[in-house]
Predict the structure.
Amino acid sequence: MELFTPELGLVFWMFIAFIILFFVLAKWGWPIIIKNMEERADTIDKGVEYAKEAKAQLDSARADAQKFLDEARRQQAEILRDAAKMKSQIIEEAKKEASEEAKKVMDAAKVSIEQSRKEAELQFRDEVSKFSLDIAEKMVRSQLKGDKAQTELVNKLLDEIENN
Amino acid sequence: MNSKKVSIILGLIVMILLSPLTMNASNGDKEEGVNVKEIMFHHLGDGYGWEVPFSHVYRIPLPVIVRAEDGKWICFSSSRLTKLEEVVDHKTGKTKLEAVPQIVNVNKDGKSYNFVLAHYSSHSNKVVQIFPVESDNDKSELKAASEISSEGEYGVDRVIDGYVLFDGQYYKEYRPIDFSITKNVLALFITALIVTLMVMSVVRWYAKKGLKAPRKGMGFMEMLIDFIYTGVIKSSLHDKAKQFAPFLLTCFFFILVMNLVGLIVIFPGGANLTGNIAVTLVLAVLVFIVINIKATKHYWKEIFWPDVPLFLKFPLPIMQCIEIFGIFTKPAALCVRLFANMMGGHMIVITLTLLIFIFAAFGAAATGGSVVISIVFSIFMLALDILVSFIQAYVFTLLATLFIAMAQDNGHHEEKHPQVEHASLPDPDNDEKKDGSTQVVA
């Protein structure tokens, strides 16, 4: 059976061919291909990982931004509210101050009025007393036209002084 | 469009069915039987020249390298083994060219050597050195030999051991050590070259394009490499995958390309390589060497002192015998599986084709029918053979990987699990180191 008996020549050449092929490919072929395939797989894995991370970061950044925005809005509202409060307070204070000032002015006016009134009163009294004296003088003068009357009065007055 | 196609196919079938009629008319009624065995062996076997496509006469000459009886190496062209001769077909009366064997005479260092391509000899279709039977002593020896082996079926042409019949004359023959670059050897070299080019094209791509993934054919190549490396080698050898990957990948691609090249009918293909036991034998021997040289102590311990009840291994080494037998049967199974599968595929295709010529004896209708059936079945079988080519290369690599993985076993299955839990040690190669570390953990 020719088919079932291995030929020595073919065995020899097959061995040579396989060994040469093996050494050539083991040196310059397979390790490079395997290394490259693994490197590529690693790179792809890393890329996927990186993309995932980037997405997560983007999401968190978006959340952060939203948070900051909300915060800013809140602060804005607060500031506005404070401003309104301050405005009304200032107005209030101004009003109060104005009224106080007005009151002071009024008081001062009252005092001066009182004073002038008193002065006027005093003046008036003086005037009145002066008038009354004048009148009295004139009356007395008219009454004391005779010497008897004059002597009587002088006596009377002397009596008064003596009695005192 | 469709009906046009159908009519073309029908026309072809009718033509095929009618063609034997014209063939028979020209050939006459009596046709001598086809020698199925010879044709089949010619196609499955090796040859000194390589047939030029679609010609049975012309061959591509290849060097014949033989070691003559006196130890001299002799080299000559295979074209000298045959000469072209006009042969008259005794039935049709037509002349046709035929390659007829002739004696090659080579002179080297003043000595003359005669070689011939044996036909009626025990070394059929091989180059043999011949010596003329001249002296009375030789003649009486030949007579004695012919009486011993008298059961030949060819009458005068019967095969006598140690003698070759050429041109109606017996010569004493010597089968030289034959390192010729035959058809199969050249096909081996071509296959190795194809594999190298295939692999190197991917390597060149990497050198040029870096980490960019290869496209088209190279992508397919890379897919195959990844399929074998990740799917087969890495899954069973784990951290030792890199050590054995070059050998196993070379095996896979060499076998795959040999299988596929064998299916191509004309020149670069047509050599039945993996269907030749010498080729599969070398592959199996290499696998055997790799398994046993790289084997661990545990593997040899399992062979010479396996974990079985004492009576199975002590007074009578029953288990040892079985295990040692197993060392050899594993690669032998690889060798025979690949050889038988590939040769079977080729044989079926050839048989289906030969059916046409066998049925030709039964008339035109039978021939026509057998032509259609044979062609359909041949195409089916060839398509199946493409699948088988891949599967056989895959199975060979898979089993070789498993055998190697078995011989790489360190026998620490039970200790491995707690060890992984305690500390993730990167699986040290050294046995003693491992034992030490487990002690520390304990």
Q: What stands out?
A: Chain B touches chain A through 47 residues (CB under 8 Å). Confidence is low (pLDDT under 50) at residues 24-31, 152-156, 414-442 of chain B. The radius of gyration of chain B is 29 Å.
